[in-house]
Amino acid sequence: MISYIILFDHIPGGVVSMLMYLQLIESDDDKSKFEEIYRAYRGLMYHVAYARLQHEQDAEDVVHHVFVKIAENIKIIEPVSPRTKQLVVTMVNNRVTDIFRSRSRHPISSYDDKLQITPSLERNETDLLTECILQLPEQQQMVIWLKYVHGYSLREIAKLLGITLIWAQKIDQRAKKRLETLYREEGGTL
Length: 190
Fold this sequence. Notes:
The protein is mostly helical. The protein is built from eight helices and no strands.
C-alpha cells in the first residue's frame, strides 16, 4: 500500500503534482518507487534547475517535465540510488539546456492578435518591399514575418499557426508570388 505522506510536501504544487504523476503509473510497486524518487530528489532537482534558470516558475516547470518523464518510464528506472540521483540531475540539466536552446533560437515576445511590426517595418516608411508585405493578406504576412524575419521553419510556422505543413508551404508560395507581383507593380525591380 502506498503511503501518501508525500502529499504534505511543502514545495508549491506538490500535492497536485504528486496525484497527477501517480495517475500515470499502473502498479502499486511502481507508484511506491516513484514516491521514493519524488521524495528523495524533488528538492535537488528544483535546486539544479533554479541555479541555471534563475526563475522560480521555469525551475518548477522543468521539475514537472522531468517527473512526467520519470513517471512514464518508471518501470525501467532504478529505485533511489546514486545512479538514479545522477539520472534525475542529468534529466534536469538536459531539459534546462533544451529551454536555453529554444530561447536562443526563438526569442520570447508578447503575443498580440495583430501582426507585430518592428519599427523598421512601419507603414509610414518609404521602403517599397515593406509596403508590399503590408498589402498581403494577414496569414501571408504572418508566414513571411515568421519565416524571413524570425527564422522559423515552415514546420514550426505550421505548428504555431495550427495549420498543416502543406498549407504553410502553400501560403509561403502564394505570399512570395503575390509579393513579387506587388513589388513589380509598385515600380520595384528584381
